[in-house]
Amino acid sequence: MGPGYGTRGVSVAPEGRRGTRYGRLLRHGFTDPEAAARLLDSPSLAPVRDDALFLDALGATADPDLALFGLVRLIEALEARDKDAQPLLDTLLGAKPLRDRLLGVLGASDALADHLAGHPHDWEALVTYESADLHPGVAEFEAALQDVDGPDALRVAYRRALLSIAARDVCGTSDVAQTAAELADLATATLRRALTIAETEAPEDAAACRLAVVAMGKAGGHELNYVSDVDVIFVAEPAAGSPGTESGNESEQALKAATRIAARMMRICSDTTAEGTIWPVDANLRPEGRNGPLVRTLSSHLAYYQRWAKTWEFQALLKARPMAGDAQLGYEYVDAVTPLVWQAAERDNFVTDVQQMRRRVVASIPAAQLDRELKLGPGGLRDVEFAVQLLQLVHGRSDTSLRSPTTLEALDALAAGGYVGRQDAAALDAAYRFLRTMEHRIQLHQLRRTHLMPEAEADQRRLGRSLGYRSEPVTELHKAWRRHASAVRRLHEKLFYRPLLDAVAQLEAGHERLSPQAARQRLEALGYADPASALRHLEALASGVTRKAAIQRTLLPVLLGWFADSADPDAGLLGFRKVSDALGKSPWYLRLLRDEGAAAENLARVLSAGRFAPDLLLRAPEAVALLGDEHGLRPRSRTALTQETLAAVGRAEGAEAAVAAARGVRRRELFRTAAGDLIGAYGTEDIAQQEPGEALDRVGDALTDINAATLAGALRAAVRQQWGDELPTRFAVIGVGRFGGHEMGYGSDADVLFVHEPREGVSEHEAGKAAFAVATEMRRLLQLPTSDPPLLIDADLRPEGKSGALARSLASYAAYYDRWSVVWESQALLRAEFVAGDAGLGERYIELIDPLRYPTGGLSDDAEREIRRLKARMESERLPRGADPTTHAKLGRGGLTDVEWTVQLMQLRHGAELPALRTTRTRAALAAARQADLIGEDDADVLDEAWVLASRVRNAAMLVRGRPGDTFPSESRELAAVGRYLGYEPGHVGEMLDDYRRVTRRARAVVDRLFYDAE
């Protein structure tokens, strides 16, 4: 690879002065600081190596090591060619846009770095930063290629133009849709130039025919990848006055000439030479595919489509557009086939054909690649594209606004027309953009055609960083990928397979949206986004002459009003139908809703408030009985929960069955807690809205008790499975973080430490093995895939973190804390509390750590500086890229971390002398600090209000979206649901965001004074 670019792994920094530099390089994202240091010390980088902005710019790239190495190669190439790289170095120092663009490209693309090393002056293509340069179109790209006179020159000019597109992409100047459109426009200009070269080489053939190149696929849809086949169809007609006219075989002669030109044009683009290749030109979407002639006349195309074409061929034609050659002929072709495209939905078995084709694509994927597929696998890009195209073909017959060949534009039109719910469209749009961006960045690295997630961790790290994930790029990348793929799978099945499409496709054109008009208008007025589906639910629930239907007809008018009073009425009605379907034959269900006044309203509030509680309910619908019990929504005590959980574990056979029983108890109790929280937040006719702080404390206590009882059950099951009644070592689970602080949210993991103490006569080694086995088994059992939500155990706060022993003996903890403990560990232990296992051992552990977390004499000046340094580093490095620091509930301005670190600093300073500060709970510690005059009353109120609000935002995000989140949702309906939970009426989400920013801004001012000692 070149000097100093060795093994890609994190190097161990040497001691002393150089270690400081190595640490700085590591913090800037270099994985091989030793090689990076050697490159920075090379003479060619002398003018820039000490420039702090230069190092920051390298650290902002996807792969700082790759960017630095590519820059050195470029400078060396300039010095070898011109004996002078000073213009580049001067521009790097003086022009931030050029610096960011060049280094961004070098850090993302090895292939473009190779191009620059071979053509070093092409870096100048990135210097211009005019408005016209931001989003060039076909005309600009044609101008850039107009002087190209041969295939190799075209390849070089193509890569030069690609540099600017990639720069705008990786720097965020262009979003993924704009990048894809620019790539399609560059492909158009390139094909036009390649066709001109081919015609110049064969002027007689060019004179004999009119040849049109029609773009298909992603090229036709203006959504091309960096490396993708450019799908085309060729159409030709004889030129006026061409040879052969007199003998009557002008069409045959013209087709032969056009075929030679088309074939040559394809080779110009796809051949590989010393200057590389551009991309393959694929004409296999033509009639009869590879078995058919490369070029046909317009009449021959139409004859084929009218008689022989299959459904998928009309689906492909949806994206057809004239691209190069004879524009008039190209438009004649598109005008002729367009009516055929929009009649395709009237074909017999249309929907079935499209669905089966999609299934065949999935079935053809090699099993070893299925989990790595971004494009073709379940939850991939093709799912979104097929779903959108199917809806276009079904509804675009009568609604011309749906006929865009671009997926995202079509999806937006479908949402605008009501054919897709806006929430669904927003989720699909976000997922499609994310997956396409992943695909782009993967291809950009080597400019190779692929849509597989790379296997190497270094490649995944670069990919994650390119998408903005900096703290744990690989983990965060996979988490986001799974989330978006899951959303696509769910929405794809909802849109693509819904039986309604079959019925709609069989109607006469123009009548596919018929429905009872008055009912639809009523539902629309109530806020239902999908009144047709709502009507179907109502018909299913209330039709017929049975007693059950009669009761439903009594209930539904009231329920519809309650659903409409929520942010998502459709979800409420759908959930009600599901619960009714599951419990319809249970005699108590409808009687409960009819006779217990609160039960029906409680159910309506829970079902329409978000996804978390309904998901829990639908896993065990009989829990609806809790909603009719006056005391059913009150959290149960930890003692009662532990007794029930241990009894359920005792009755089960085998550890997995035992923990499944424990998780069943947990699921029911999570639903009880969430339902009570939602009903208290919304208020009902009989229940006033709760005071936010009290409600939050009640939820935190309830979730902590539920999870502690679940851990006790898992511990009992894990021990019993291998050792019977007694483990050879005493074992305790210590809660830390939000778990130990009784501040768990709905999306919180269980942060724990495992401690053990060998029983008499048991060796330390045997005890350690047993403790490790139990801890590991507990984690496994609580994460087994079942219908119940998992309880994730996070033990990363243990000594030495992930590298340390999962379970330690009490003596080992004592030795570690005596010798190695650092101040952040003392801070983390402030929220340590025994939660499960041997209570005596738990007490001894707490006695061990008290001197650490409440140090006699308080903190030293060095320790306080270290805490502030760690906090400042967290603020600069851990906030997700693109996140708004004014609304990020955990790490943002005035959020949870700000308040907690301020309170914890007071505990570390004064906990030894003030017993009231020795609490694991943030709000209790803040109240004690106020009582002791460590903080003013006004400041304490400001911090308390901000902490409560930020905690409730996180809980609301989980309740509404069904997955954890640290900020407000971006989708409007979800945002409105969060607003309802926080007490804001419909239409007041702007006020909610303003209030949040005001509260947290005031809190940050207090934090600056008390934590950072800023005036």
Task: Explain the overall architecture.
This protein has 1015 residues and is mainly alpha-helical. The chain is 60% helix and 5% strand. It is built from 45 helices and ten strands. The strands form two sheets. Strands 1, 2, 3, 4 and 5 form a five-stranded mixed β-sheet that branches. Strands 6, 7, 8, 9 and 10 form a five-stranded mixed β-sheet that branches. Strand 7, helix 36 and strand 8 form a beta-alpha-beta unit. Helix 29 packs across helix 30 and helix 32 runs antiparallel to helix 33. The longest helix has 32 residues. It is globular and about 100 Å long.
Please sum up the structure shown.
The chain has 45 helices and ten strands.
Helix-strand layout with pairing:
Blueprint: H1 17-27, H2 33-40, H3 52-59, H4 64-82, H5 86-94, H6 96-108, H7 110-118, H8 131-134, H9 138-145, H10 151-170, H11 176-201, H12 203-208, E1 209-215, H13 217-220, E2 230-238, H14 250-270, E3 281-282, E4 295-296, H15 298-307, H16 311-317, E5 321-325, H17 327-342, H18 350-363, H19 381-395, H20 407-416, H21 422-446, H22 457-466, H23 473-496, H24 500-505, H25 517-525, H26 531-542, H27 547-564, H28 569-583, H29 587-595, H30 597-608, H31 612-619, H32 638-651, H33 655-682, H34 692-723, E6 729-735, H35 737-740, E7 750-758, H36 764-783, E8 793-794, E9 807-809, H37 810-819, H38 823-828, E10 833-837, H39 839-853, H40 861-877, H41 896-910, H42 922-931, H43 937-961, H44 972-981, H45 989-1010
Parallel strand pairs: 2-3, 2-4, 7-8, 7-9
Antiparallel strand pairs: 1-2, 1-5, 6-7, 6-10
Helix pairs in contact: 1-2, 2-4, 4-6, 4-7, 6-10, 9-11, 10-11, 11-14, 15-17, 19-20, 19-23, 20-21, 21-23, 22-23, 25-26, 26-28, 27-28, 27-30, 28-30, 29-30, 31-33, 32-33, 32-34, 33-34, 34-36, 41-42, 42-43, 43-44, 43-45
